[in-house]
Amino acid sequence: MPPCHPLDVAKQTLAEKLPALSVEQRQAEVRLLVEAVFQLPYSALLTKSADFFTTEAFQPAWQQLHTLLEDRTIHRTPLQYLLKQAWFLGRPFFVSPAVLIPRPETELLVEAALGLITPSAKAEAPFRWADVGTGSGCLAISLALALQEHYPSVQFTGIATDISTEALQVAQHNADELKVASQAIAFLLADVLTPLDTSEKPPVGLDLILSNPPYISPILAPTLAPEVLKHEPAGALFSGDCGFEVVRKLIIQASIALKPDGFLLIEVGSGMAKTVADWAVTQASFTVLSVWSDYAGHERFLTLQRKG
Ligand code: GLN
Fold first, then answer.
1. Could you tell me the distance, in angstroms and rounded to a whole number, from the CA of residue 136 to the centre of ligand 1?
2. Looking at residue 123, what is its pLDDT?
């Protein structure tokens, strides 16, 4: 038998076993998997002949490639959990099945938060913010680093909450790896903004809260891809009351934790924004500043402001 090139093996396996992936997705996955396993850039892999990979030295890499392809195709493990890495706003975040894999549209929340931090808000230093349900820490860490970079002389203090101890450990690890100043984010085990350790006080007087809470109705579970349903943490995906339970809790607790005129930025599922906006106005003391869309044009984000 002629020797096999790892790129061909990966391409063929993914094409046969995951035919639903688009050609672009498949190419991206092949590239990332093979680069990670053989520790060579794609350009180098392309120019090597199959013979190059037959040496004894590559045996462990071949073994690893087969295991990863099996995990990916049979167990439907998401690529990011296999590589233990997901990119968010240009930075690599460590991810494990304890945390949601950051999604590209969630990056828009950080940009929106930065847009709200106006010079007048900066003047009232320290500016206090919180990320509720931090997961991998992608939102909190990206915001803290952007603030450090844009306003080096302004004092900001952030709180990143999660109900899962494992998720907080991942977020703390990412903050250390990505060199967030240790005083920039306090990690807090909490149900939304209520600390689980009753000796801790819930945060108050915040200027801004951002959150990508769990918002999928459990009824929709059978419609999710196996990568999501079997592997991502249920607590990060699902929320009772048709997906609204955690969002409602967030709005109530945020209306207490925020300063008058403080901002609440929330990501929600498609078709939920109007209900959430109505609820924030009628059941809590918020004004709706804007409802805005993701890259696909679906209304997925709300910017709310606590009434003064
Ligand atoms: N804030 C994290 C993210 O957006 C986790 C969100 C969650 O667990 N629902 O990826």
1. 7
2. 64
